[in-house]
Write a structure and sequence with these properties.
Layout (H helix, E strand, L loop, with lengths): L1 H10 L2 H17 L2 E6 L6 E2 L3 E3 L4 E5 L7 H13 L7 E6 L3 H8 L4 E7 L7 E2 L12 E6 L9 H11 E8 L11 E2 L6 H8 L6 E2 L4 H6 L4 E5 L7 H7 L7 E5 L3
Parallel strand pairs: 5-6, 5-8, 6-7, 8-9
Antiparallel strand pairs: 1-2, 3-4, 9-13, 10-11, 12-13
Amino acid sequence: MKTIISFVIRYVPRPLLQRVSPLVMKVFGQMNSGNDVTCPVCGHSYKKFLPYGRIARANALCPNCLSLERHRLMWLFLKQKTDFFSAPLRVLHVAPEHCFIGRFEGLKNLDYITADLESPLAKVKMDVHDIPFPENSFDVVFCNHVLEHVEDDLRACAEFNRVLKPDGWGILQSPVYPIEKTLEDKNIKDPAERERLFGQRDHVRKFGKDYAERLRKSGLLIEENLFVKELSLDKLKQHGLPPEEVVFVCRKGD
């Protein structure tokens, strides 16, 4: 199972994966019935979550809604630490995740806009380097696991800062590796070399421990929130959560 999933993730185009995965995963879900883990996003329980990743992580993927560890943590963070589910908010969601789209679209308090350059799930075709909305347009911006792919991460963040309202906020997750400084070389074009250096063929940088400090150069205010440390070990196990994941919360800066 791990080998198959790793191969599919590496070589099947992402737009195709986004269309086909929900149907295929439901079959695996039926084979994995149980009550040992529960996804807080969709409420479904299983014996365990499915493996996922180029180097497959055990107990990662919810077969029903396709949430991963970081998505389940973000859901709980939004529930417990924000007014996202109750306040009237205009939301820009870049590269929207399958597990969130229908649920966020169903919230009557939200004016919810999905956007991406390639994803078939997004309704607005948009380049994050040049967001086609005026200043102070959004209360909330989500952009998860995108900034490691784009040519200029700071320009994208400057655009988020521009379109956020004065009291706006957002969540900007990316893979952060245990290296001191972000590794980046725009001269590297070969996919195999990018995978070797940056972790994936479509990554253009590997973020290090300076991730928050780096993004602050765009003008955004970045908080490294350790919400996960407030959760019990039983809760981490029940929902298959990453025990060390930082939630990078942004707010509009100068």
